[in-house]
């Protein structure tokens, strides 16, 4: 009889199957100094990848690099604001210059914004759209120039359940995340025959610093979040990171253009 799955998140890293290994791959993870991005960087390293840890300051990225190195992995801190196209290009170019290649790009950098649509300023709207939609395109474009030349690569965009359902007070965020899913599909179709796979990973509410701060500030009611989630709890960052690592690996070689929900059943339930 097979073991029953646990409701707890076990510490499992780095599958033994060679099909899943990311040895000799170079991965760039934007916004990876904390939260889900940090966990993705750690997980990709555990699967064998050399990881570029990105933050707007190298000082913030260095602790994750040191943590990866302490576990026997290889990592490089590269500072840069992906909201500036020239800096997105510079991050990718430096990664290739110092590490010789780029095989995986994870567009993770982001931020939230809650505001009534009737008072949402165009400045705030533009800021969110730029970081959550324009920046991933700029990073993907920069990475694809190298990947297309190599004839292979994987780009993973971090979208959200907000790209699938409406969340009141989050017009800019929902629009950006839905747009990111559309961008994912278009790039996947456009680049498929040249060796690049493009996917999005779409989490629900994850037990990250941002959500914890929101819970403390009473922006979210934890009981409501649990009621809306059939699995009855928030997700953990490592549960998202494992999906990203799988999609980046050759085990997912026939997957492209898909949006993979990591939401505890939230969108399947669809009730309020």
Assign the CATH superfamily.
NAD(P)-binding Rossmann-like Domain
Give the H and E element order. EHEHEHEHEHEHHHEH
Share of helix among residues? 40-55%
The fraction of residues in strands falls at: 5-15%
Mean pLDDT equals 91
- What is the top-level CATH class? Alpha Beta
Q: State the CATH topology.
A: Rossmann fold
List keywords for this structure.
Rossmann fold, alpha/beta, 14% strand, seven-stranded parallel beta sheet
Structure description:
The chain is an alpha/beta fold. The chain is 44% helix and 14% strand. It contains nine helices and seven strands. The protein has helices at residues 35-46, 58-70, 85-99, 122-150, 171-191, 209-216, 222-227, 237-248, 266-269; strands at 26-29, 50-55, 75-79, 104-107, 153-158, 196-203, 259-262. The chain has a seven-stranded parallel sheet, with helices on both faces. Helix 1 (35-46) crosses helix 8 (237-248).
């Amino acid at each position: 009889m097979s073991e029953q799955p646990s409701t707890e998140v076990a510490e499992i890293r780095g599958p033994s199957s060679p099909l899943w290994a990311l040895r000799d791959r170079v991965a760039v993870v934007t916004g990876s100094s904390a939260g889900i991005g940090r966990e993705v960087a750690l997980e990709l390293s555990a699967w064998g990848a050399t990881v570029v840890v990105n933050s707007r300051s190298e000082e913030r990225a260095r602790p994750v690099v040191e943590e990866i190195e302490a576990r026997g992995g290889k990592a490089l801190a590269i500072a840069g604001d992906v909201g500036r196209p020239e800096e997105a290009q510079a991050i990718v170019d430096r990664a290739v210059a110092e590490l010789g290649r780029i095989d995986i790009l994870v567009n993770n950098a982001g931020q939230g914004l809650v505001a009534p649509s009737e008072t949402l300023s165009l400045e705030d709207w533009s800021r969110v759209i730029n970081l959550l939609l324009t920046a991933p395109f700029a990073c993907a474009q920069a990475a694809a120039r190298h990947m297309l030349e190599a004839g292979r690569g994987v780009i993973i965009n971090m979208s959200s359940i907000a790209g699938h359902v409406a969340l009141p007070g989050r017009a800019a965020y929902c629009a950006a995340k839905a747009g990111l899913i559309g961008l994912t599909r278009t790039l996947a179709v456009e680049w498929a025959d040249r060796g690049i796979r493009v996917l999005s990973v779409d989490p629900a509410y994850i037990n990250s610093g941002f959500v914890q701060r929101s819970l403390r500030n009473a922006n979210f009611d934890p009981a409501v979040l649990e009621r809306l989630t059939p699995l009855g709890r928030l997700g953990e960052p490592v549960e998202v990171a494992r999906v990203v690592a799988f999609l980046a690996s050759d085990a997912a070689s026939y997957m492209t253009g898909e949006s993979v929900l990591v939401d505890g059943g939230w969108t399947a339930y669809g009730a309020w």
